[in-house]
Design a protein that fits this description.
The protein has 466 residues and is of the alpha/beta class. It is 52% helix and 21% strand. The protein contains 19 helices and 17 strands. It has an 8-stranded mixed β-barrel, surrounded by 4 helices. Bound molecules: ligand C2E and calcium ion (2 copies).
Length: 466
């Protein structure tokens, strides 16, 4: 009986041990692998990086760390749903694995962010080859359900130990390089260098300053007059934002609008700009008795914001400004990304009575096809084409063609950046209706603009060309 019992207990113990082993390995798996893609997870890659740092101290070989972020994942996820999004991540994970050697480690850090540790490199630059291989592998179209997709990735690369000896520092630097790859137009890779860190910390500092600037209202709108070239009268003014920085003085918009756009802060500031511009235009009517329009620049984010129509409407209403005195300036790329939706929005704004202008024309896609489809009023010739008029033969031909084409489409033309009478003359002869530029006036505060409206002969060409 005792022998029997002993055997039974031994069997049970063995079975339990087996179960324990199974559970332990499952737990280990959970702890080290990403359940969706079966790639290594954050925890595991951290350990591997630490190990690589150690080994790099003892050997001649280099280790490369690639930080990857998919470029258009959010769009797939938003338009097709999470299940399809997950499917895409799985396919992409397989392509990453196929692009590296078996001893390299591919990990998913979360979302659409991945990380690859490449081992045993002879030269530091060799991880660039892996990045190239990955970009090529991603280039193959990818099937999800019935639809075909193209994914690409932006890749930042650091080498161990040059770019750091702590996991945190390495990943942070790789992330900074990845960010550079994004700003360089996506679907490319960048090796980290120290200059990038400086740029990144300046960005962080600037972002903090901008948040403060919004709450402390350090912004002011300036206005640049737009003239009817035929009569020489001011017909409208473009609102251009200025930042009165507490120590740096007046900061031009090109230095901060891109960051506002990227961080989404532009929505708040943009709302303020719209409100402010409407109030100013109302002042011009009341104080100077001149019925002129105000042109407001919109950024891509604002244009996509579903609240935009109501923001514009309520700004006009509370300023008691009629819509026919409001013009919005949009760029080609803003409408190109979704023509149907853009057209609906433009139709709505037009129905309200607002004028719509295409800004910086000639610098983007400049496709006649879409211009025809859209409900527009004004086309603004970018100042880069005006700059070398009338000397430059190419620019002469381009500007003449743009004006003729705009007129075919029943659009009025505004030339930007007119600085000389010769430029004005050329534009006038080619039938350009309106112009703005330093020849007439820089952008000025509303109060100054009102003074100008009261004494229009202040403006240079009024004296000289007449
Ligand atoms: P933009 O819309 O093309 O604005 C015209 C720019 O040309 C202005 O620069 C203006 O000061 C400058 N300019 C005007 N006349 C001349 C000239 O004769 N010669 C030269 N060389 N330049 C001239 P600014 O004010 O620095 O604005 C730069 C850009 O910042 C604008 O380009 C626009 O894209 C953006 N921006 C400005 N204000 C706003 C705003 O309120 N909202 C948004 N979203 N963007 C804005
Ligand atoms: Ca503009
Ligand atoms: Ca422009």
């Amino acid at each position: 009986v005792l022998d029997e019992a002993e055997l039974q207990v031994a069997d049970q113990l063995e079975a339990m041990q087996h179960q324990i082993n199974k559970n332990t390995s499952r737990l280990e798996n959970l702890a080290h692998y990403d359940s969706l893609t079966q790639l290594a997870n954050r925890h595991r890659i951290f350990k591997e990086i630490q190990q690589a740092v150690k080994e790099s101290a003892e050997s001649e070989e280099f280790f490369g760390l690639l930080y990857l972020d998919l470029d258009n994942f959010k769009r797939v996820n938003d338009s097709l749903g999470h299940t399809m999004g997950d499917e895409l991540l799985k396919i992409v994970a397989k392509r990453f694995l196929a692009s590296v050697r078996t001893h390299d480690v591919v990990a998913r850090l979360g979302g659409d962010e991945f990380c690859i540790l490449v081992k045993g490199l002879k030269k530091r630059e060799d991880s660039g080859m892996i990045a190239e291989k990955i970009l090529t592998a991603l280039g193959e179209p990818l099937k999800l359900g019935t639809a075909e997709f193209h994914v690409s990735a932006s890749i930042g690369i650091v080498t161990i130990p040059e770019h750091g000896i702590s996991t945190e520092q390495l990943l942070q630097n790789a992330d900074i390089a990845m960010y550079r790859a994004k700003t360089e137009g996506r679907s490319n890779y960048q090796f980290y260098n120290e200059g990038m860190s400086v740029a990144a910390s300046e960005r962080v500092a600037l972002e903090m300053e901008l948040r403060k600037a919004i709450t402390e209202q350090q912004f002011e709108l300036y206005y640049q007059p737009q003239l009817d070239l035929g009569s020489g009268k001011i017909v409208s003014a473009e609102a251009l934002v200025r930042w009165h920085h507490p120590t740096r003085g007046l900061v031009p918009p090109d230095d901060f609008i891109p960051l506002l756009e990227e961080t989404g802060l532009i929505i708040d500031l943009g709302k303020w700009i719209i409100q402010q511009a409407c109030v100013a235009a109302r002042d011009w009517h009341d104080v100077a008795g001149e019925n002129i329009r105000v042109a407001i620049n919109l950024s891509p984010r604002q244009f996509k914001d579903p609240a935009l129509p109501s923001i514009i409407r309520s700004a006009m209403m509370s300023a008691k400004l009629q819509p026919c005195y409001v013009e919005i300036e949009i760029t080609e790329s803003m409408v190109m990304s979704n023509i149907e939706e853009s057209n609906q929005l433009l139709k709505y704004l037009k129905a309200l009575g607002i004028t719509v202008a295409v800004d910086d024309f000639g610098t983007g896609h400049s496709s006649l096809g879409y211009l025809k489809k859209l409900d527009l009023d004004v086309l603004k010739v970018d100042r880069t084409f005006v700059k070398d008029l009338p000397e430059d033969e190419n620019d002469r031909a381009i500007v003449a063609a743009i004006i003729a084409m705009a007129h075919e489409l029943k659009l009025k033309v505004v030339a930007e950046g007119i600085e000389s009478l010769e430029q004005e003359d050329f534009l006038k002869r080619h039938g350009c209706e309106m112009g703005q530029g330093y020849l007439y006036s820089k952008a000025i505060p509303s109060g100054k603009f009102i003074e100008m409206l009261r004494r229009p002969d202040n403006i240079v060409p009024f004296k000289r060309s007449r």
